[in-house]
Design brief:
There is one protein chain. The chain has one domain: Immunoglobulin-like (Sandwich). The protein contains no helices and twelve strands. The protein has a five-stranded mixed β-sheet, with no helix packed on it. A four-stranded mixed β-sheet has the order 2-1-4-10, with no helix packed on it. Strand 6 and strand 7 form a beta hairpin.
């Protein structure tokens, strides 16, 4: 499974996260994540029944925590894996595996401040 994280002008323009393929078989899944953008990005895998573009933006800070104002990140309570720290610098690639992925709906996203809300997200299905 290949994931590309892209931006053209940092937070001044659209951000994209593209996954290929969008559906895989249950079991161990290897993610190869490449940052082809101009700023740092990350990627986490969240298991959720909520549509990929409807996760509530209710958190902020590092680690993400609920905030009363200025929220710019999604809750990571359904997180099952990700690229980890440090964030991926432009041009970097990181590989990680998630064992025993169960069938269901997932969201792949970058949860660095503002990035999910600016489009760095994709639906992902395990069947």
């Amino acid at each position: 499974m290949h994931v590309v994280l892209t931006d053209m002008t940092g937070l001044n323009g659209p951000l994209t996260l593209t996954a290929s393929p969008e559906t895989v078989s249950a079991g161990t899944v290897t993610f190869v994540v490449k940052n082809t953008g101009t700023i740092d990005h990350s990627m986490i895998v969240v298991k959720t029944g909520t549509p990929f573009n409807r996760l509530p933006i209710v958190d902020g800070g590092s680690p993400p925590a609920s905030v009363a104002t200025g929220a710019n990140e999604v809750d990571e309570s359904g997180k099952i894996g990700g690229t980890g720290a440090p964030d991926l610098k432009p041009g970097e690639t990181r590989t990680f595996k998630i064992k025993n992925m169960a069938t269901g709906k997932y969201v792949l996203l970058s949860n660095i401040a503002k990035q999910y809300g600016m489009g760095m997200r994709a639906a992902f299905t395990v069947r």
